[in-house]
Amino acid sequence: MKRRSLLTSSASRRLLRPVADLVDQRIDRRLRSAAADNSAQLERLREAVERAGGHQLAVDMLLGPGGRGLSRTVYKGPLERLHTELTELVGDRESAVRGVATAYRLLIALESLGVGRIAGGTMNICGKLAAIPLLDPPNDEILEIGTLYGMFSAGLVRMMERDGRSPGVTIVDPFAGVQLQPGTDRRPDPTGAPVDEHAVRTNLALAGPAGAAARVQRGFSEDPDTRAAVSDRAYGVIVIDGDHSLAGVLADLQWAEEIAAPGAVVVLDDFGDARWPGVKDAVDKHLARETRFTYLGKAAHSAFLRAT
Fold first, then answer.
1. What does the pLDDT read at residue 64?
2. pLDDT one-digit tens code per residue, 293-305
3. Which of 77, 249, 276, 291 could form a disulfide with 270 if both were Cys (CB 3.0 to 4.6 A apart)?
């Protein structure tokens, strides 16, 4: 007959029961403590998620598409590409990065306070605003052909002033109530604001005295009377953002040849954008003939030329 194990005998179980009960009690306490800790951690996690959701909601209200029809949220990839393109254009990465950050803050401020919006994507706008002062125009006279709500000119005034300059602005636009573009339907702006001279004046006032003093000429840039009214000076900066057709951009470039100061910076918006092939086609065609302009480079669908 086999001897019974010590641990399985009745006497052994009676002797070990207090020890087992004590172990069970300690395990139970540990389990209850762990459950309480987990509950507290879950509550803290829930509160953190709610706070993060609130923060994201605030960011969406400020930068999301609800108020202007397009998002102003910045993403790492496009931002890094803009930094690289601007560095190649202006030759100074530190200045390019700082200029983009300044332009972005200005963009958000203007669209928060102004009427309507600035036309274009976020990187496109920041690229133009940052690049123009860094390219050191020969004088502070700015001509913008096609302005939408005038907000880009207001931003450019501020960027030039930050660089210690005293800009004077001239704007040419038909102010047709909506944004006009050959080959597209006439439809209200996503912001709901009418495209008119009153909105432009309101936005220019955000740029202070220089904005309030801006010259605003109503009309199409190809009209002789419109051209005559604003061709009284040589411009250090010319922004061409009107008719995006091949013929329209060619006409504006030819006019720019006549009124650009030596060393002037000429900016063509939507260059290389597949939606507006006429812009790049016109630039390529114009530069292939005898011209005062040389191609400097591009950044976020804007081409930059220099008048010789």
1. 81
2. 999 999 999 999 9
3. 276
Q: Please state, in angstroms and rounded to a whole number, the distance separating the CA atoms of residues 269 and 118.
A: 12
DSSP string, 256-285: HHHHEEEEEEEEEETTT-TT-HHHHHHHHH
User: DSSP string of 223-255?
Assistant: -HHHHHHH-SS-EEEEEE-S--SHHHHHHHHHH
| C-alpha distances out from residue 87 to 156, 231, 269, Å | 19, 33, 19
The mean pLDDT of 63-78, rounded to a whole number, is 85
Query: Distance (Å, rounded) from C-alpha 127 to C-alpha 33?
Result: 57
Give the C-alpha separation, 260 to 253, whole Å.
10
Enter the pTM of the model.
0.80
Assigned token pair, 41: 């951690």
In this predicted model, what pLDDT tens digit does every residue of 103-145 receive, in sequence order?
999 999 999 999 999 989 999 999 999 999 999 999 999 999 9
Number of neighbours of residue 284 by Cβ within 10 angstroms: 12
Contact assessment for residue 279 and residue 241, using Cβ atoms and an 8 Å cutoff: no
As a whole number, mean pLDDT of residues 236-256 equals 96
How far apart are alpha carbons 266 and 306 in whole angstroms? 6
What's the CA dihedral at 294, 298, 303, 307 to 10 degrees?
-30
In tens, the pLDDT along 184-240 reads 555 667 777 888 899 999 999 999 999 999 999 999 999 999 999 999 999 999 999
Q: β-strand 168-173 against 141-145: which pairing, if any?
A: parallel
**If you compute the radius of gyration of the chain from its CA atoms, what whole number of angstroms results?**
32
What's the full length of the chain, in residues? 308
Bridge pairing between strands 235-240 and 168-173: unpaired
Q: What residues have CB less than 8 Å from 209, skipping those under 6 apart?
A: none
